[in-house]
From TrEMBL:
The chain crosses the membrane at residues 26-46, 66-84, 96-117, 158-176, 197-214, 234-250, 262-279, 291-313, 325-349, 361-382. InterPro entries: Acyl_transf_3_dom, Glucan_succinyl_AcylTrfase. It is an enzyme of class 2 (transferase). Residues 19-373 form the Acyltransferase domain. Keywords: Acyltransferase, Membrane, Transferase, Transmembrane, Transmembrane helix. GO terms for molecular function: acyltransferase activity. This is Acyltransferase. Its EC number is 2.3.1.-. It comes from Undibacterium cyanobacteriorum.
Length: 407
């Protein structure tokens, strides 16, 4: 069999497990924790802010800001493809709804309210107790205005990702049910459009057209029913992950292009930092420069994702004793992490620690608290569903055995 024939076979056909995709998923959610700790220290709007907040850290934030959520949707698309390869569309829709909507509802009712409460305490000097606030929260109170915007209660804050993921998953499930043969054709089309130079420049061209054409009129809102630019962007990444999930040729190509992709990402990052330092403060960028910045923004995003996938394919495509446990932990840690960061930061306010000390401490404590809660929930079958975990399956039993070995 020729090498070309081997490359074009799917991982399943080759009997190869693409472990690096699990590691990318673990890395992506870990990166999200670091990013949200960073949001506490930059001048951009966030739920609560450090007394030392400034623009100092912002250039580093731009390393991941253009692509961190897009990567999560791409990885989710990959996972969706493998799930639909094992389940019918109806089974997938039911499982996905249970695993996403229940944590979303629980998160909005229990996990997210402390974020909104501390936000109105810090920014509006709200004097009521937490229980007073909960009464307002669950009665759809509309009287809080922060930085000129109405605070909508109840809210999903960082859990907006779950609502979007569920919506995209249901669209795919319905289409899979109605047009099963079309997906095979679309996978072949996607394969042909992501060969050679096209795997770099065609996605950039599409994403640049979206950003130039939609961003000004439809800026990101994280509002499921009114977020057209984000939907066009994130659903594209979700579909790319879905249609390329089993394309071993594509993943091998990312490894071959990893250094070129990294260089493109670094050049794009330098330009974005310079642009933001000069024009973002003045707010008078010529239209041609603004459009060029949007092209570079998506170039930075796509080339960064290609580089990460390429390096992971080259160096992380191996199993590890903790991979299964960490993969199981990803979703619960995502649900918990932002509230844990905000509660920890609030407790540390009176300590007046320097950000260079406090920031890494917040990252460490967030991981420690979230992981500890995950290990506890993993041992209690009734609690697993509210954290997006399956019941007592082979995975959870295996993970629990590993915990026992570590204890």
């Amino acid at each position: 069999m020729s090498s070309t024939a081997v490359i074009n076979k799917t991982p399943a056909a080759l009997g190869e497990r693409l472990y690096f995709l699990d590691w990318i998923r673990i890395f992506a959610f870990g990166l999200l924790i670091c990013y949200h700790v960073g949001m506490y220290y930059v001048s951009w709007g966030w739920h609560i802010k450090s007394e030392a907040a400034s623009s100092t850290l912002e250039p580093l934030m731009f390393l991941t800001n253009p692509w961190r959520m897009s990567l999560l949707f791409l990885v989710s698309g990959v996972a969706t493809r493998f799930m639909l390869g094992r389940q019918s569309a109806g089974q997938f829709a039911g499982t996905r709804s249970w695993r996403i909507l229940l944590p979303l509802i629980f998160g909005m009712a229990v996990i997210v309210p402390p974020q909104a409460y501390l936000e109105v305490v810090q920014k509006l000097q709200y004097q009521g107790s937490y229980f007073d606030f909960l009464n307002l929260y669950f009665h759809n109170y509309r009287g809080f205005f922060i930085e000129g915007k109405r605070l909508v209660l109840p809210t999903w804050n960082h859990l907006w990702f779950l609502a979007y993921l569920w919506s995209y998953s249901m669209i795919i499930a319905l289409a899979w049910k109605m047009f099963p043969t079309a997906f095979l054709k679309l996978e072949k089309i996607t394969d042909s459009l992501t060969k050679g130079w096209r795997m770099i420049f065609l996605p950039i061209a599409y994403l640049a057209a979206l950003r130039i054409g939609l961003l000004s009129e439809h800026p990101p809102t994280n509002n499921l029913t009114n977020d057209w630019y984000n939907h066009a962007n994130y659903f594209f990444y979700f579909l790319m992950g879905f249609f390329l999930a089993q394309n071993l040729r594509f993943w091998n190509a990312t490894a071959q292009l990893r250094w070129k992709s990294l260089m493109m990402a670094l050049v794009g990052w330098i330009f974005i930092v310079c642009y933001m330092r000069y024009y973002d403060q003045r707010g008078d960028a010529p239209l041609s420069i603004l459009y060029f910045q949007r092209i570079v923004w998506v170039m930075l995003a796509w080339s960064s994702i290609l580089a990460l996938c390429g390096f992971a394919r080259q160096h992380w495509n191996r199993d590890h004793a903790k991979r299964e446990l960490l993969t199981t932990a990803v979703f619960p840690l995502y649900i918990l992490h932002q509230t844990v960061i905000i509660l920890l930061a609030w407790q540390l306010l009176d300590w007046h620690l320097a950000p260079i000390v406090e920031g890494p401490l917040l990252v460490f404590l967030c991981f420690a608290f979230c992981y500890g809660i995950f290990l506890l929930v993993l041992r209690i079958p009734l609690l697993r569903p509210i954290m997006g975990m399956a019941g007592k399956t082979r995975t959870s039993v295996s993970a629990a055995q590993k915990i026992g070995n570590l204890a």
